[in-house]
Amino acid sequence: MTFVTGETVTGHLTMSHGLLLGDFTFNGVVFHFRAPQESSENRLANIATRGFVNSGQGQLIGGFIIRGGPKLVLIRALGPSLTAAGVNPALADPQIMLFQNNTLLRQNNDWQGAANASEIIATTIPPTNAKDAAILIRLEPGNYTTVVDGADGGTGIALVEVYELDRD
């Protein structure tokens, strides 16, 4: 694997007797990895996808699966706050919808208007721009889909993120 900065990571990861074992080299330093396969330490804390949001079928869609649980998750749709990172053209007013199958569970536009905005702030990772969108929700095990589009019909680059905030 090669990172954008040009460093190469080499190594291996194997499973043996319920343990994940391995080592990898990054920037000349060898790191060793050993963890129980089903450990609470082995979990995905966050996943994000960036893409261009268009109207109609050009929505930004992300899917995720909850196993175990229920899990408290924060889902963010960022647009305006991306401009500080040099992203152009950023989606000016993203809105996010959360579905399980075809059922709309929750939606948000302008996260500070959410009924649980104070709880979103308490996560310590609220969006930095009031026009970004966020949903904080406890989800049961299952398959979920996020859909991001422009609340005003606008287009631009957006980032959708899902954070797992607690453990089983």
Q: What's the topology here?
A:
Blueprint: E1 9-16, E2 19-26, E3 29-36, E4 46-53, E5 60-66, E6 71-78, E7 94-100, E8 103-109, H1 117-122, E9 133-139, E10 142-150, E11 156-164
Antiparallel strand pairs: 1-2, 2-3, 4-11, 5-10, 6-9, 6-11, 7-8, 7-10
SSE topology string: EEEEEEEEHEEE
Helix content: under 10%
Tell me what portion of residues adopts beta-strand conformation.
over 45%
Mean pLDDT: 86
Distance between the termini: 31 Å
User: Mind describing the biggest β-sheet?
Assistant: 4 strands, antiparallel
Largest sheet, spatial ordering of strands:
4-11-6-9
Using the alpha-carbon principal axes, give the shape: globular
Number of strands: 11
Number of helices: 1
Low-pLDDT segments, ≥5 res: 1-5
Radius of gyration: 18 Å
> Which structural category fits the helices and strands?
mainly beta
Written description of the protein model:
It is a single chain. The strands form three sheets. This protein has a four-stranded antiparallel sheet with strand order 4-11-6-9, with no helix packed on it. Strands 5-10-7-8 form a four-stranded antiparallel sheet, with no helix packed on it. It contains one helix and eleven strands, in the order E-E-E-E-E-E-E-E-H-E-E-E. The chain is globular. The chain has 168 residues and is mainly β.
